[in-house]
Design brief:
The protein is an alpha+beta fold. Strands 6-5-4-17-16-15 form a 6-stranded antiparallel beta sheet, sandwiched between helices. Strands 3-12-13 form a 3-stranded antiparallel beta sheet, with no helix packed on it. A hairpin with a 6-residue loop joins β16 and β17. α1 packs antiparallel against α9 and α2 packs across α4.
Amino acid sequence: LVRFVAGGVLMPVEGYEVEPENGYDIYTTLDINIQDIAERALMRKMMEKEALEGTCVVMEVATGKIKAMANLGRDSSGNYFETNNYALRTSEPGSTIKLIPLLTALDEQNKTIQDNIDIHGGKWNVKGRVVSDDHGGAASISLKQAFALSSNVAMSKLAYEYYNTQPEKYYAKMKSLHLTSKTGIELKEEFTPVVPNPKNKKSWNDQTLVSWGFGYALLVSPLQLLMVYNAVANNGKLMKPYLVNEIRSYGTVIQKNNPVVLNSAIASENTIRQLRECMEAVCTEGTARIAFQNSLYKVAGKTGTAKVNDGVFKYKDRVYQSSFAGYFPANNPKYSIIVTIKNKPGAAGYYASTVAAPVFKEIADHLFKYIEKPVWSQQLTANKDSFGYQFSGNRESVRLLANQFGWQGFGKSTGNWHQVVLSKQNISEKEISVMSGMVPNVVGMGLKDALFLLESAGYRVNITGKGRVVRQSIDGGTAVAKNKIIELNLN
Protein backbone atom coordinates (compact mmCIF):
# COMPACT_ATOMS: atom_id res chain seq x y z
CA LEU A 1 0.00 0.00 0.00
CA VAL A 2 1.35 3.45 -0.91
CA ARG A 3 0.20 7.07 -0.47
CA PHE A 4 0.83 10.23 -2.43
CA VAL A 5 2.88 12.96 -0.78
CA ALA A 6 3.88 16.39 -1.99
CA GLY A 7 5.16 16.51 -5.53
CA GLY A 8 3.27 13.35 -6.54
CA VAL A 9 5.79 11.08 -4.81
CA LEU A 10 4.58 7.63 -3.76
CA MET A 11 5.56 6.57 -0.25
CA PRO A 12 5.05 3.07 1.21
CA VAL A 13 2.70 2.96 4.19
CA GLU A 14 4.56 1.36 7.05
CA GLY A 15 3.19 -1.97 8.24
CA TYR A 16 1.40 -2.81 4.97
CA GLU A 17 4.24 -4.68 3.28
CA VAL A 18 3.42 -8.32 2.52
CA GLU A 19 6.37 -10.62 2.04
CA PRO A 20 6.12 -13.11 -0.84
CA GLU A 21 6.03 -16.77 0.10
CA ASN A 22 6.68 -19.93 -1.85
CA GLY A 23 3.67 -21.79 -3.19
CA TYR A 24 2.96 -25.47 -2.61
CA ASP A 25 4.23 -28.21 -4.90
CA ILE A 26 1.47 -30.19 -6.63
CA TYR A 27 2.13 -33.81 -7.64
CA THR A 28 -0.47 -34.87 -10.18
CA THR A 29 -1.73 -38.27 -11.26
CA LEU A 30 -0.86 -37.48 -14.89
CA ASP A 31 1.60 -39.74 -16.68
CA ILE A 32 3.61 -37.53 -19.03
CA ASN A 33 4.10 -40.37 -21.52
CA ILE A 34 0.37 -41.21 -21.66
CA GLN A 35 -0.42 -37.50 -21.89
CA ASP A 36 1.91 -37.17 -24.87
CA ILE A 37 0.37 -40.21 -26.57
CA ALA A 38 -3.16 -38.87 -26.05
CA GLU A 39 -2.33 -35.38 -27.29
CA ARG A 40 -0.62 -36.65 -30.45
CA ALA A 41 -3.42 -39.07 -31.30
CA LEU A 42 -6.07 -36.40 -30.76
CA MET A 43 -4.13 -33.78 -32.73
CA ARG A 44 -3.58 -36.14 -35.67
CA LYS A 45 -7.27 -36.94 -36.09
CA MET A 46 -8.44 -33.36 -35.54
CA MET A 47 -6.04 -32.04 -38.17
CA GLU A 48 -7.18 -34.75 -40.58
CA LYS A 49 -10.84 -33.83 -40.05
CA GLU A 50 -10.30 -30.08 -39.55
CA ALA A 51 -12.37 -30.52 -36.40
CA LEU A 52 -13.40 -27.58 -34.22
CA GLU A 53 -12.56 -28.94 -30.78
CA GLY A 54 -11.83 -32.20 -29.03
CA THR A 55 -10.90 -33.89 -25.79
CA CYS A 56 -9.51 -37.20 -24.65
CA VAL A 57 -9.32 -38.50 -21.07
CA VAL A 58 -7.47 -41.62 -19.90
CA MET A 59 -8.42 -43.00 -16.47
CA GLU A 60 -6.89 -45.80 -14.42
CA VAL A 61 -9.74 -48.27 -13.91
CA ALA A 62 -8.98 -49.46 -10.38
CA THR A 63 -8.31 -46.05 -8.82
CA GLY A 64 -9.98 -43.29 -10.84
CA LYS A 65 -6.63 -41.56 -11.36
CA ILE A 66 -6.54 -39.34 -14.44
CA LYS A 67 -3.47 -40.42 -16.42
CA ALA A 68 -4.05 -38.03 -19.34
CA MET A 69 -6.40 -35.18 -20.16
CA ALA A 70 -5.87 -33.70 -23.63
CA ASN A 71 -7.88 -30.75 -24.97
CA LEU A 72 -7.58 -28.97 -28.31
CA GLY A 73 -9.48 -26.11 -29.91
CA ARG A 74 -9.09 -24.57 -33.37
CA ASP A 75 -8.60 -20.84 -33.90
CA SER A 76 -9.68 -18.75 -36.89
CA SER A 77 -6.37 -19.39 -38.69
CA GLY A 78 -6.77 -23.17 -38.40
CA ASN A 79 -4.16 -23.74 -35.67
CA TYR A 80 -4.83 -25.95 -32.64
CA PHE A 81 -4.21 -24.95 -29.03
CA GLU A 82 -5.32 -26.01 -25.57
CA THR A 83 -7.98 -23.34 -25.46
CA ASN A 84 -10.52 -24.86 -23.02
CA ASN A 85 -10.93 -27.95 -20.91
CA TYR A 86 -13.58 -29.61 -23.05
CA ALA A 87 -13.47 -32.73 -20.85
CA LEU A 88 -15.36 -30.75 -18.20
CA ARG A 89 -17.81 -28.98 -20.53
CA THR A 90 -21.30 -30.38 -20.87
CA SER A 91 -23.10 -31.26 -24.10
CA GLU A 92 -25.78 -33.61 -25.39
CA PRO A 93 -23.82 -36.89 -25.48
CA GLY A 94 -25.70 -38.86 -28.12
CA SER A 95 -25.49 -42.64 -28.16
CA THR A 96 -22.80 -43.03 -25.49
CA ILE A 97 -25.67 -42.48 -23.01
CA LYS A 98 -27.36 -45.70 -24.21
CA LEU A 99 -25.45 -47.61 -21.56
CA ILE A 100 -27.89 -46.14 -19.00
CA PRO A 101 -31.24 -47.40 -20.41
CA LEU A 102 -29.66 -50.81 -21.02
CA LEU A 103 -28.36 -50.87 -17.44
CA THR A 104 -31.76 -50.01 -16.00
CA ALA A 105 -33.51 -52.61 -18.17
CA LEU A 106 -31.19 -55.38 -17.01
CA ASP A 107 -31.03 -54.30 -13.38
CA GLU A 108 -34.57 -53.11 -12.67
CA GLN A 109 -36.79 -54.61 -15.38
CA ASN A 110 -35.47 -58.20 -15.07
CA LYS A 111 -34.55 -58.32 -18.74
CA THR A 112 -31.61 -60.15 -20.29
CA ILE A 113 -29.53 -59.22 -23.32
CA GLN A 114 -31.00 -62.23 -25.17
CA ASP A 115 -34.54 -60.82 -24.85
CA ASN A 116 -36.01 -59.43 -28.06
CA ILE A 117 -37.41 -55.93 -28.42
CA ASP A 118 -39.75 -54.68 -31.15
CA ILE A 119 -38.07 -51.86 -33.11
CA HIS A 120 -40.83 -51.58 -35.75
CA GLY A 121 -38.44 -51.81 -38.66
CA GLY A 122 -36.36 -48.88 -37.34
CA LYS A 123 -39.18 -46.34 -36.94
CA TRP A 124 -41.24 -45.84 -33.77
CA ASN A 125 -44.09 -43.37 -33.41
CA VAL A 126 -44.53 -42.22 -29.82
CA LYS A 127 -47.29 -39.62 -29.32
CA GLY A 128 -46.76 -38.14 -32.76
CA ARG A 129 -42.96 -38.10 -32.63
CA VAL A 130 -41.05 -40.54 -34.86
CA VAL A 131 -37.81 -41.99 -33.51
CA SER A 132 -35.65 -43.52 -36.25
CA ASP A 133 -32.66 -45.85 -36.52
CA ASP A 134 -29.91 -45.06 -39.02
CA HIS A 135 -29.61 -48.70 -40.05
CA GLY A 136 -33.32 -49.39 -40.49
CA GLY A 137 -33.85 -52.93 -39.33
CA ALA A 138 -36.06 -55.91 -38.76
CA ALA A 139 -39.24 -56.02 -36.77
CA SER A 140 -37.39 -57.07 -33.62
CA ILE A 141 -33.82 -57.72 -32.43
CA SER A 142 -32.16 -58.80 -29.18
CA LEU A 143 -31.09 -56.20 -26.64
CA LYS A 144 -27.48 -57.16 -27.28
CA GLN A 145 -27.89 -56.49 -30.99
CA ALA A 146 -29.79 -53.28 -30.28
CA PHE A 147 -26.89 -51.94 -28.21
CA ALA A 148 -24.18 -53.16 -30.59
CA LEU A 149 -25.96 -51.55 -33.56
CA SER A 150 -26.90 -48.46 -31.53
CA SER A 151 -30.67 -48.63 -32.02
CA ASN A 152 -32.36 -45.36 -31.05
CA VAL A 153 -35.76 -47.03 -31.06
CA ALA A 154 -34.77 -49.86 -28.71
CA MET A 155 -33.03 -47.67 -26.13
CA SER A 156 -35.78 -45.04 -26.15
CA LYS A 157 -38.41 -47.72 -25.60
CA LEU A 158 -36.43 -49.17 -22.69
CA ALA A 159 -36.40 -45.76 -21.02
CA TYR A 160 -39.93 -44.69 -21.91
CA GLU A 161 -42.18 -47.74 -21.64
CA TYR A 162 -41.02 -48.78 -18.16
CA TYR A 163 -40.43 -45.38 -16.57
CA ASN A 164 -43.01 -43.10 -18.21
CA THR A 165 -45.36 -43.48 -15.25
CA GLN A 166 -42.52 -43.37 -12.70
CA PRO A 167 -39.77 -41.13 -14.20
CA GLU A 168 -38.43 -40.35 -10.74
CA LYS A 169 -37.02 -43.90 -10.61
CA TYR A 170 -35.00 -43.31 -13.78
CA TYR A 171 -33.80 -39.98 -12.41
CA ALA A 172 -32.77 -41.72 -9.17
CA LYS A 173 -30.63 -44.15 -11.18
CA MET A 174 -29.00 -41.23 -12.99
CA LYS A 175 -28.32 -39.64 -9.61
CA SER A 176 -26.76 -42.85 -8.24
CA LEU A 177 -24.39 -42.81 -11.21
CA HIS A 178 -23.42 -39.21 -10.31
CA LEU A 179 -24.65 -37.90 -13.65
CA THR A 180 -26.77 -35.19 -12.00
CA SER A 181 -23.89 -33.47 -10.20
CA LYS A 182 -20.27 -32.47 -10.79
CA THR A 183 -17.60 -35.14 -10.47
CA GLY A 184 -15.73 -33.10 -7.85
CA ILE A 185 -12.39 -33.26 -9.68
CA GLU A 186 -9.90 -30.64 -8.48
CA LEU A 187 -10.56 -28.21 -11.34
CA LYS A 188 -12.84 -25.22 -10.79
CA GLU A 189 -13.92 -24.84 -14.41
CA GLU A 190 -16.06 -28.00 -14.28
CA PHE A 191 -19.54 -27.38 -15.69
CA THR A 192 -22.68 -28.40 -13.79
CA PRO A 193 -24.65 -31.07 -15.69
CA VAL A 194 -28.18 -30.29 -16.82
CA VAL A 195 -30.42 -33.30 -16.18
CA PRO A 196 -34.11 -32.35 -15.87
CA ASN A 197 -35.81 -33.49 -12.69
CA PRO A 198 -39.31 -34.97 -13.23
CA LYS A 199 -40.49 -32.92 -10.26
CA ASN A 200 -39.78 -29.73 -12.21
CA LYS A 201 -42.67 -29.54 -14.65
CA LYS A 202 -41.12 -26.56 -16.47
CA SER A 203 -38.20 -28.64 -17.72
CA TRP A 204 -39.97 -32.00 -17.96
CA ASN A 205 -42.39 -33.29 -20.60
CA ASP A 206 -43.70 -36.55 -22.08
CA GLN A 207 -40.83 -36.72 -24.56
CA THR A 208 -37.95 -36.24 -22.10
CA LEU A 209 -37.43 -39.96 -21.44
CA VAL A 210 -37.66 -40.70 -25.15
CA SER A 211 -34.88 -38.18 -25.83
CA TRP A 212 -32.79 -39.45 -22.92
CA GLY A 213 -32.81 -42.91 -24.49
CA PHE A 214 -30.49 -41.79 -27.29
CA GLY A 215 -28.65 -38.91 -25.66
CA TYR A 216 -30.62 -35.68 -26.04
CA ALA A 217 -32.52 -33.32 -23.67
CA LEU A 218 -29.70 -33.49 -21.11
CA LEU A 219 -26.17 -32.09 -20.83
CA VAL A 220 -23.33 -34.09 -19.29
CA SER A 221 -19.54 -33.87 -19.61
CA PRO A 222 -17.18 -36.44 -21.17
CA LEU A 223 -15.57 -36.95 -17.74
CA GLN A 224 -18.95 -37.83 -16.18
CA LEU A 225 -19.65 -40.41 -18.87
CA LEU A 226 -16.17 -41.87 -18.46
CA MET A 227 -16.87 -42.40 -14.75
CA VAL A 228 -19.82 -44.67 -15.60
CA TYR A 229 -17.96 -46.65 -18.26
CA ASN A 230 -15.04 -46.99 -15.86
CA ALA A 231 -17.43 -48.39 -13.25
CA VAL A 232 -18.51 -51.15 -15.64
CA ALA A 233 -14.84 -51.97 -16.25
CA ASN A 234 -14.29 -51.93 -12.47
CA ASN A 235 -16.96 -54.60 -11.82
CA GLY A 236 -19.58 -52.06 -10.80
CA LYS A 237 -17.48 -49.89 -8.49
CA LEU A 238 -17.86 -46.18 -9.32
CA MET A 239 -14.64 -44.27 -8.61
CA LYS A 240 -14.28 -40.53 -8.17
CA PRO A 241 -11.87 -39.18 -10.80
CA TYR A 242 -8.95 -37.25 -9.34
CA LEU A 243 -5.95 -35.36 -10.66
CA VAL A 244 -3.83 -34.56 -7.59
CA ASN A 245 -1.79 -37.22 -5.78
CA GLU A 246 -0.14 -34.99 -3.20
CA ILE A 247 0.41 -31.40 -2.14
CA ARG A 248 3.76 -30.68 -0.50
CA SER A 249 5.33 -27.73 1.23
CA TYR A 250 9.14 -27.74 1.31
CA GLY A 251 9.12 -31.50 0.82
CA THR A 252 6.57 -32.19 3.56
CA VAL A 253 3.30 -33.81 2.48
CA ILE A 254 0.44 -31.62 3.69
CA GLN A 255 -2.30 -33.36 1.70
CA LYS A 256 -2.41 -36.84 0.20
CA ASN A 257 -5.31 -38.00 -1.94
CA ASN A 258 -6.38 -41.62 -2.17
CA PRO A 259 -8.95 -43.39 -4.38
CA VAL A 260 -12.54 -42.63 -3.39
CA VAL A 261 -15.43 -45.02 -4.05
CA LEU A 262 -18.61 -43.07 -4.86
CA ASN A 263 -20.83 -46.13 -5.34
CA SER A 264 -19.66 -49.63 -4.44
CA ALA A 265 -22.11 -51.29 -6.84
CA ILE A 266 -23.92 -49.40 -9.61
CA ALA A 267 -25.73 -52.63 -10.55
CA SER A 268 -25.77 -56.36 -9.81
CA GLU A 269 -22.88 -58.60 -10.86
CA ASN A 270 -25.11 -60.25 -13.46
CA THR A 271 -26.02 -56.88 -14.97
CA ILE A 272 -22.37 -55.78 -15.11
CA ARG A 273 -21.42 -59.05 -16.81
CA GLN A 274 -24.11 -58.55 -19.47
CA LEU A 275 -23.17 -54.89 -20.00
CA ARG A 276 -19.56 -55.88 -20.60
CA GLU A 277 -20.65 -58.51 -23.11
CA CYS A 278 -22.73 -55.93 -25.01
CA MET A 279 -19.87 -53.40 -25.01
CA GLU A 280 -17.51 -56.00 -26.43
CA ALA A 281 -20.10 -56.78 -29.13
CA VAL A 282 -20.00 -53.11 -30.21
CA CYS A 283 -16.32 -53.62 -31.08
CA THR A 284 -16.61 -57.07 -32.68
CA GLU A 285 -19.93 -57.02 -34.54
CA GLY A 286 -21.42 -53.57 -34.02
CA THR A 287 -20.79 -49.96 -34.94
CA ALA A 288 -17.06 -50.01 -34.01
CA ARG A 289 -16.17 -53.39 -35.56
CA ILE A 290 -14.12 -51.89 -38.43
CA ALA A 291 -12.07 -49.68 -36.11
CA PHE A 292 -10.99 -52.65 -33.97
CA GLN A 293 -11.03 -55.53 -36.46
CA ASN A 294 -7.24 -56.02 -36.38
CA SER A 295 -6.74 -55.32 -32.68
CA LEU A 296 -4.35 -57.56 -30.72
CA TYR A 297 -6.51 -57.18 -27.61
CA LYS A 298 -10.21 -57.03 -26.79
CA VAL A 299 -11.91 -53.66 -26.45
CA ALA A 300 -15.27 -52.84 -24.88
CA GLY A 301 -17.01 -49.57 -25.55
CA LYS A 302 -19.73 -47.55 -27.23
CA THR A 303 -19.86 -45.12 -30.14
CA GLY A 304 -21.89 -41.94 -30.05
CA THR A 305 -22.68 -39.43 -32.80
CA ALA A 306 -24.85 -36.44 -31.87
CA LYS A 307 -26.08 -33.31 -33.62
CA VAL A 308 -24.75 -30.20 -31.88
CA ASN A 309 -27.03 -27.50 -30.49
CA ASP A 310 -24.79 -25.36 -28.29
CA GLY A 311 -25.77 -21.74 -28.84
CA VAL A 312 -23.21 -21.30 -31.61
CA PHE A 313 -24.65 -24.03 -33.84
CA LYS A 314 -28.23 -25.26 -34.21
CA TYR A 315 -29.36 -28.77 -35.14
CA LYS A 316 -30.08 -27.54 -38.67
CA ASP A 317 -26.39 -26.61 -39.15
CA ARG A 318 -25.53 -30.33 -39.18
CA VAL A 319 -22.51 -30.05 -36.93
CA TYR A 320 -21.85 -33.44 -35.30
CA GLN A 321 -20.07 -34.49 -32.13
CA SER A 322 -18.33 -37.87 -32.35
CA SER A 323 -17.57 -39.85 -29.19
CA PHE A 324 -16.21 -43.22 -28.14
CA ALA A 325 -16.12 -44.37 -24.52
CA GLY A 326 -14.76 -47.69 -23.36
CA TYR A 327 -11.95 -49.65 -21.74
CA PHE A 328 -9.27 -52.24 -22.48
CA PRO A 329 -8.14 -54.98 -22.33
CA ALA A 330 -11.75 -56.11 -22.08
CA ASN A 331 -10.91 -59.31 -20.19
CA ASN A 332 -8.77 -57.49 -17.58
CA PRO A 333 -9.40 -53.73 -17.83
CA LYS A 334 -6.53 -51.40 -16.93
CA TYR A 335 -7.53 -48.11 -18.55
CA SER A 336 -10.80 -46.50 -19.54
CA ILE A 337 -10.79 -43.80 -22.22
CA ILE A 338 -13.26 -41.33 -23.68
CA VAL A 339 -12.68 -39.40 -26.89
CA THR A 340 -15.05 -36.60 -27.92
CA ILE A 341 -14.53 -34.50 -31.08
CA LYS A 342 -16.75 -31.75 -32.48
CA ASN A 343 -16.56 -31.82 -36.28
CA LYS A 344 -16.65 -28.83 -38.61
CA PRO A 345 -19.95 -27.89 -40.30
CA GLY A 346 -20.67 -30.10 -43.28
CA ALA A 347 -17.90 -32.59 -42.45
CA ALA A 348 -17.91 -35.50 -44.91
CA GLY A 349 -17.09 -38.15 -42.31
CA TYR A 350 -18.46 -37.51 -38.85
CA TYR A 351 -19.52 -40.90 -37.45
CA ALA A 352 -17.83 -41.84 -34.18
CA SER A 353 -16.61 -45.12 -35.66
CA THR A 354 -14.32 -43.22 -38.06
CA VAL A 355 -13.50 -40.16 -35.95
CA ALA A 356 -13.37 -40.97 -32.21
CA ALA A 357 -12.83 -44.75 -32.19
CA PRO A 358 -9.53 -44.58 -34.17
CA VAL A 359 -8.13 -42.11 -31.61
CA PHE A 360 -9.07 -44.53 -28.82
CA LYS A 361 -7.35 -47.36 -30.68
CA GLU A 362 -4.15 -45.41 -31.31
CA ILE A 363 -3.85 -44.58 -27.62
CA ALA A 364 -4.72 -48.12 -26.55
CA ASP A 365 -2.20 -49.63 -28.97
CA HIS A 366 0.59 -47.60 -27.36
CA LEU A 367 -0.52 -48.40 -23.81
CA PHE A 368 -1.04 -52.11 -24.47
CA LYS A 369 2.69 -52.77 -24.82
CA TYR A 370 3.18 -51.44 -21.27
CA ILE A 371 0.36 -53.58 -19.89
CA GLU A 372 1.31 -56.88 -21.52
CA LYS A 373 4.93 -57.53 -20.63
CA PRO A 374 6.61 -60.07 -22.93
CA VAL A 375 7.26 -63.57 -21.63
CA TRP A 376 10.88 -64.42 -22.30
CA SER A 377 11.79 -67.98 -23.22
CA GLN A 378 14.31 -69.68 -20.96
CA GLN A 379 15.64 -71.61 -23.97
CA LEU A 380 17.09 -68.64 -25.81
CA THR A 381 20.81 -68.85 -26.62
CA ALA A 382 22.97 -65.74 -26.58
CA ASN A 383 24.32 -64.38 -29.84
CA LYS A 384 27.31 -62.07 -29.82
CA ASP A 385 26.21 -58.47 -30.13
CA SER A 386 27.86 -55.31 -31.37
CA PHE A 387 29.35 -54.18 -28.08
CA GLY A 388 30.99 -57.45 -27.10
CA TYR A 389 29.01 -58.98 -24.27
CA GLN A 390 29.32 -56.02 -21.90
CA PHE A 391 27.38 -53.07 -20.61
CA SER A 392 28.90 -50.19 -18.72
CA GLY A 393 27.13 -47.30 -17.08
CA ASN A 394 26.12 -45.62 -13.85
CA ARG A 395 24.79 -47.60 -10.93
CA GLU A 396 21.18 -46.61 -11.48
CA SER A 397 21.27 -47.85 -15.09
CA VAL A 398 22.69 -51.18 -13.94
CA ARG A 399 20.05 -51.43 -11.23
CA LEU A 400 17.32 -50.73 -13.80
CA LEU A 401 18.58 -53.55 -16.03
CA ALA A 402 18.93 -55.87 -13.06
CA ASN A 403 15.31 -55.30 -12.03
CA GLN A 404 14.00 -55.77 -15.59
CA PHE A 405 15.88 -59.02 -16.23
CA GLY A 406 15.69 -60.48 -12.72
CA TRP A 407 19.43 -60.41 -12.01
CA GLN A 408 19.97 -60.86 -8.31
CA GLY A 409 22.44 -58.74 -6.37
CA PHE A 410 23.36 -56.31 -9.13
CA GLY A 411 23.84 -52.56 -8.75
CA LYS A 412 23.92 -52.79 -4.96
CA SER A 413 27.52 -51.72 -4.22
CA THR A 414 28.47 -48.15 -3.40
CA GLY A 415 30.50 -47.33 -6.53
CA ASN A 416 28.95 -44.94 -9.02
CA TRP A 417 30.10 -46.76 -12.19
CA HIS A 418 29.72 -50.43 -13.06
CA GLN A 419 30.50 -52.89 -15.84
CA VAL A 420 28.32 -55.94 -16.49
CA VAL A 421 30.01 -58.72 -18.47
CA LEU A 422 28.67 -61.96 -19.96
CA SER A 423 31.26 -64.74 -20.00
CA LYS A 424 30.43 -68.38 -20.80
CA GLN A 425 26.75 -67.68 -20.10
CA ASN A 426 27.56 -66.31 -16.63
CA ILE A 427 26.83 -62.69 -15.81
CA SER A 428 29.29 -60.84 -13.61
CA GLU A 429 29.59 -57.27 -12.40
CA LYS A 430 32.52 -55.15 -11.35
CA GLU A 431 32.98 -51.55 -10.36
CA ILE A 432 34.75 -49.20 -12.75
CA SER A 433 37.54 -47.38 -10.96
CA VAL A 434 37.60 -43.65 -11.50
CA MET A 435 40.84 -42.15 -10.15
CA SER A 436 42.04 -38.58 -10.25
CA GLY A 437 44.63 -38.02 -12.98
CA MET A 438 43.75 -41.31 -14.72
CA VAL A 439 41.73 -41.68 -17.92
CA PRO A 440 38.43 -43.46 -17.12
CA ASN A 441 37.60 -46.66 -19.02
CA VAL A 442 34.44 -45.81 -20.98
CA VAL A 443 34.36 -48.77 -23.42
CA GLY A 444 30.84 -50.24 -23.46
CA MET A 445 29.21 -47.04 -22.25
CA GLY A 446 26.64 -44.93 -24.03
CA LEU A 447 27.74 -41.51 -25.19
CA LYS A 448 26.04 -39.62 -22.36
CA ASP A 449 27.91 -41.52 -19.63
CA ALA A 450 31.20 -41.51 -21.52
CA LEU A 451 31.12 -37.74 -22.07
CA PHE A 452 30.18 -37.11 -18.46
CA LEU A 453 33.09 -39.15 -17.11
CA LEU A 454 35.76 -37.87 -19.49
CA GLU A 455 34.76 -34.21 -19.38
CA SER A 456 34.37 -34.31 -15.59
CA ALA A 457 37.96 -35.62 -15.47
CA GLY A 458 39.09 -32.61 -17.52
CA TYR A 459 39.58 -34.19 -20.96
CA ARG A 460 38.28 -33.01 -24.32
CA VAL A 461 36.45 -35.53 -26.50
CA ASN A 462 36.09 -36.10 -30.24
CA ILE A 463 33.44 -38.57 -31.37
CA THR A 464 32.88 -40.68 -34.47
CA GLY A 465 30.00 -43.08 -35.04
CA LYS A 466 26.77 -43.80 -33.12
CA GLY A 467 25.81 -46.25 -30.41
CA ARG A 468 28.10 -47.47 -27.62
CA VAL A 469 31.81 -46.82 -27.21
CA VAL A 470 33.90 -49.65 -28.74
CA ARG A 471 37.30 -47.93 -28.63
CA GLN A 472 38.98 -45.01 -26.91
CA SER A 473 42.26 -43.56 -28.20
CA ILE A 474 43.87 -43.53 -24.73
CA ASP A 475 43.27 -46.65 -22.65
CA GLY A 476 41.50 -46.45 -19.34
CA GLY A 477 43.83 -46.26 -16.35
CA THR A 478 46.48 -44.28 -18.24
CA ALA A 479 47.90 -41.24 -16.46
CA VAL A 480 47.39 -38.28 -18.81
CA ALA A 481 47.35 -34.55 -18.15
CA LYS A 482 44.05 -32.74 -18.28
CA ASN A 483 42.84 -30.98 -21.44
CA LYS A 484 44.13 -33.84 -23.57
CA ILE A 485 41.94 -34.81 -26.57
CA ILE A 486 40.57 -38.37 -26.43
CA GLU A 487 39.04 -39.91 -29.54
CA LEU A 488 35.99 -42.16 -29.05
CA ASN A 489 34.75 -44.61 -31.67
CA LEU A 490 31.11 -45.67 -31.33
CA ASN A 491 29.71 -48.78 -32.99
